[in-house]
Amino acid sequence: MQALVYDGDVRLVDLPVPEPQAGEALLRIRLAGICGTDLHISRGYADFHGILGHEFVADVMAAPEPQWLGRRVVGEINLPCGTCAWCQAGLPRHCAARRVLGIRGKDGCLAEFITLPLANLHAVPDTVPDAFAVFTEPLAAALAILEQVHICPSSRVLVIGDGKLGLLIAQVLRLVGCDLHLVGRQPRNLDLIGARGVKVYPADGFAQAGFDVVIEVTGNPSGWQTALQAVRPRGTIVLKSTYPGRGAENPTALVVPEVTVVGSRCGPFAPALRLLARRLINPKKLISRVYPLAQAREALAYAGQRGVLKILVEMPLYESNVSVVPRAAL
Amino acid sequence: MQALVYDGDVRLVDLPVPEPQAGEALLRIRLAGICGTDLHISRGYADFHGILGHEFVADVMAAPEPQWLGRRVVGEINLPCGTCAWCQAGLPRHCAARRVLGIRGKDGCLAEFITLPLANLHAVPDTVPDAFAVFTEPLAAALAILEQVHICPSSRVLVIGDGKLGLLIAQVLRLVGCDLHLVGRQPRNLDLIGARGVKVYPADGFAQAGFDVVIEVTGNPSGWQTALQAVRPRGTIVLKSTYPGRGAENPTALVVPEVTVVGSRCGPFAPALRLLARRLINPKKLISRVYPLAQAREALAYAGQRGVLKILVEMPLYESNVSVVPRAAL
Does the beta-carbon distance from A85 to B251 stay under 8 Å? Predict the structure, then answer.
């Protein structure tokens, strides 16, 4: 099968179809998404070597439980050990020995086939098209914010960052009814979310303050100072950004205003699928381009360009499903 | 009256007794405490010029409401405007226009007299001696942790720092019944709190992890790395340290383990006085030395020495009450 591998370089290679281990299904990928983390990994972050990618929708080709055969599924990306203290404490996503699809110790989904434990699979409702289902993982990451922080209908909330995750977070938070603001650098992306009733601002000269909750999702160090200036006393900053390097922060800036910072990573798949099925989240305008797997290297390069939103990669067997649906028509 | 002033230098000077403004009482200080913040201010932190000090117990000499006359009191240190959005939202300690006793726009208590709004005063129960009552403000700051974070009897908690606030925090947290650990650099201070059933460790070579809650109260940048290494996934770091400078932190270290950081400053006086009256908090072993006001400069210098705990300054009229109670006898 073809697969997009990072082994110091990003290369499209031919590899054998993987063998499912005990408890695992063999999945044939329909459509995969490229995430900011994939870009970081392709620059050496997390020391991962292997097949890239962790956002997908797929068909179950083989499974130890027959009811899964032929199901269209998405899959959680953390593979916990199941026995350590964190797994037993109900925190399997924080298992220290976990493998993570396309990120840590487990080949990813920018390939024709992957294997994944049955426990990781979620069936996709028939009413959710592939091009929506492929957003389940990042949508779950957006929903993690609402699992961790109580954002109320009357909360005043600022999202910092107009990348694909920032826009998805704004789509989730607008459902709460909160007073929602977003600051970013890409006029086109600001227009996209502004059209959905979110108040948007260019980053240059932004100086508002007093927000109950600030979501930092720029993916680069500039967002932290904006977050500190924008959050109210005793307010909460949710950190979604990850970037390498040491930074230059004095954490005691949090002490006098008694600000809370919440690190936030992965989230729950089931409510993500419910919101997609109910059409309360419509990610179609977040798709910038769809590439065939044969052009996955080009897809990754394009995904790293400024202002580009979600790049999808379609697998050979399903090309006719997806590539006929370019962004403008979705 | 004599007063310890910082105006670029630390000096003991003669000043007129202050005039109470509308709503204020005139207080004659009995005993004052020196805090780490006073030391920072005397090195230029917070750009404060004026009389130092914000921990005290005093007698009410004049007051617009006669029931306060002659009462022995402690006083909250924040003087909010009372009308801004934060004051009206129930967050007067975060009023942007607030003055703070001995820290911002308001002369402090290392002097024979101060003025303070009646709203800031708390009567001290007769059973609480001066040398205990003077700890009300830092004890309230320790209690702020329990106002902000739900620490349970079964929580596993680490305090980083064996200074006077760290030891006071450990005294408060042991009351919760939690599994309590403290790491520090001063063998004598570790022995003090170890004798009260807290597990203590020297900082060199400390490598434990998996704590539900970590309190960072070292007052210097070294504590942050220890806190990050010690906290469990989805655990909480409470930041009590303030220090100047930029630091060198990458805040995204919080994202993958989904750690929460809570900045914590001032706390509630009423429960602090209750715990002192019930003798559930006994701060006497935290007193390193008691100086007369005439030696307040020497007191401040000594307070800055490594391993020194609380330094108290007694006022001339009350010297006989306090200076006869040296640390060993308390």
Answer: no
pLDDT for position B78 = 96
Q: Is the ipTM of this complex over 0.85?
A: no
- B17 part of contact set with chain A, CB < 8 Å: no
Residue of A231, A225, A183 whose CA lies nearest to A209:
A231
In the CATH scheme, what is the homologous superfamily, with its name and number, of domain B142-263?
NAD(P)-binding Rossmann-like Domain (3.40.50.720)
Question: What is the residue whose two structure tokens read 């580009």?
Answer: A308
Q: Could you tell me the pLDDT band of residue B330, with boundaries at 50, 70 and 90? A: very low
| φ/ψ of residue B224, rounded to 5 | -65, -45
Q: What pLDDT was estimated at residue A248?
A: 66
pLDDT band at B319 (very low <50, low <70, confident <90, very high): low
For chains A and B, CB pairs below 8 A equal 121
Give the integer Cα–Cα distance in Å for B288 and B281: 17
CB A48 within 8 A of CB A8: no
What CATH class does A2-135+283-329 carry?
alpha beta
Q: Do A248 and B247 touch (CB under 8 A)?
A: yes
Q: Which of residues 254-283 of B touch A (CB under 8 A)?
A: 254-265
Question: For residues B294 and B2, is the Cβ–Cβ distance under 8 A?
Answer: yes
